[in-house]
Amino acid sequence: MKRTLAAAVMTAALVVTATGCGGDDGKKSGSSDGAQELKGQTVTVAAVWTGAEEANFRKVLKAFSDKTGAKVEYTSTGDKFPTVVGAKAEGGNPPDVGMAPQVGVVQEFAQKGWLQPLSKNVSDAVDANYAPVWKKYGTVDGTYYGLYVKVNDKSTVWYSPQAFADAGVEPPTTYEDMLKAGQAISDSGLAGFSVAGQDGWTLTDWFENIYLSQAGAENYDKLAKHEIKWTDPTVVKALTSLGKLFEEDGLIAGGAKGALGTPYPGSVADVFGDKPKAGMVYEGDFVGAEIKGTLKKTVGEDAKLFPFPAVDGGKAPFVGGGDAAVVFKKAKNPAAAMKLVEFLASEEAGTIWAGGGGFLSPNKAVPSSAYPDDISRDLGASLIKAGDTARFDMSDQAPAAFGGPSNNGEWKILQDFLRSPGDVKGTAKKLEAAAAAAYKD
Is 156-317+402-440 CATH 3.30.70.100? Predict the structure, then answer.
């Protein structure tokens, strides 16, 4: 759950209630006749979201309550969703609806028989307004279980406009030009990039964007399922491209040693703090929250972004994370739970959610005007434009022993590669050995 780690929202579980109102409010929220069809019923929901993300989601839940009369009880699990909700499901006492933060969680819960297939209404709404890839990620063994309602764009490069102006460079459209821009920034006095090497998940994100653009979506899918080996020439080529960033003197703030001591928040501060060390930092759209919240800078003025550029003539990548709404088979109120998921699939829900910021909808019916600022609108447009070429974070699809914070997994091996980027084939062999063991288990 890398996005959750990045946002640093590890908190104890808390419960907040959004209560349905009367018929007049139902009319205000868009109901055609103000009917309170679920009045007196309760739906329980669990998700990872806290803070501003929770507050924005509560607005959506309130709209559902106003429309239907249902009472919605929301529980935040912090970053412990699979553990907390999995234990409740195993004990026969799950929430009615869960917002699964990873593809693997949807797959695991479905394979254990804990989930109810989504309704035809949900399926039809998705067929009409979502790229097919998002339905694919919510489908397990041919049955549709997970509605992707919230997506993170992990293909964004954030930069200091002042650093670009000082170096005389413009936002690049190719990977090679991005490295050249970084070198120009380095020549002007700052490092080109800050890399959060202390957090191994950021290195997997670098690799995934390069690989998706360079090797293509079909190979990306195969590698994510370990249907091709990590010693495949496409992997070696992507590691070679990543190594160009790691091995160039002066391109990374502090060099490899400095990067390996830099956590994700520190990498953002290296570019947008009061004493900048670098001109660019790669990570997802959630960088904006760090800039605005912790560093108190203005996104769009002090900080701007450009899409992760195309590599070797490939398409510009869109790697995303996301949260899928699922209905539990042992839900206490399954009919009302499904009604909530049907509402979450609607333009109305997406429009309300988008207005709060920090949210991207894969629903193409959500208008760009719903987003609160130009950067959010651009990010939303990028998601829709990516269509079926968008791909879910690869390491989040892998077994935790390989894709997670394991001493023998991808995080650690890429940290070693950052330290010694010349050993491309050796790194590929280590990745394959670790993947083979994890996928076998």
Answer: no
What is the rounded distance in angstroms from the CA atom of residue 64 to the CA atom of residue 72? 9
* Residue whose structure tokens are 């009045």: 39
Q: Cβ atoms within 10 A of the Cβ of 64, count? A: 27
* Tens digit of each residue's pLDDT (9 = 90 or more) over 330-344: 999 999 999 999 999
Tokens standing for residue 229: 């080996």
The torsion region of residue 130 among left (phi > 0), alpha (psi -120 to 50) and beta comes to: beta
pTM across the whole model: 0.85
**In residues, how long is the chain?**
441
**Cα dihedral 9→12→49→208 (10° resolution):** 50
Closest-CA residue to 320 (of 129, 149, 439): 149
Rounded to 5 degrees, what angle do the CA atoms 347, 351, 356 make?
155
Euclidean distance between CA atoms 377 and 48, whole angstroms: 24
Angle CA 19–124–92, to nearest 5? 50
2-153+320-392 carries CATH number 3.40.190.10: yes
Q: Rounded to whole angstroms, how far apart are CA atoms 316 and 241?
A: 15
